[in-house]
Write a structure and sequence with these properties.
Shape: elongated
Radius of gyration: 19 Å
Number of strands: 4
Helix content: 10-25%
Low-confidence stretches: none
Length: 136
């Protein structure tokens, strides 16, 4: 297509907007870097929600981590490990991109590219379909 593509939004920001003094591209990241990171939000691991019945439970990353609970590096790994026999599919249905019986091409691309339609100081990296060819 002639337009550079990147495997992630942060890689695109670093590659296409490294000199951007406004920081707009980096500020658009889902977990934008800050000057003072905090421990707010969910844990970096997932664990089974034993407080909910098996058929209706899923995996969570809510603080604090209960003592003795198994942990998994991702939500899907937790569902596969802790709820493999769950016939309701509740755990898998709670994934951000839950698997379906008929996958579609909906949503963003698997790669990010520079948003050349926006001025450099205000631009960021996007994964909007369709991937444009060349620079505008």
């Amino acid at each position: 297509s002639g337009r550079p593509t990147y495997s992630s939004q942060i890689a695109c920001c670093r590659g296409a907007y490294a000199g951007q003094t406004s920081g707009t591209c980096l500020s658009q990241l889902p977990s934008a870097p800050t000057m003072s990171p905090t421990e707010a939000g969910g844990l970096d691991v997932y664990y089974p929600d034993y407080a909910t019945t098996f058929g209706e439970a899923g995996c969570i990353n809510t603080r604090p981590l209960p003592s003795g609970r198994p942990t998994y590096s991702s939500q899907i790994a937790c569902c596969r490990g802790a709820y493999a026999g769950q016939t309701s599919g509740t755990c898998l249905s709670q994934l951000p991109s839950a698997p379906t019986m008929s996958p579609t091409e909906a949503g963003g691309l698997d790669v990010y590219y520079p948003d050349y339609a926006t001025t450099f100081g205000e631009a960021g990296c996007i994964n909007t379909r369709p991937l444009p060819s060349g620079r505008p």
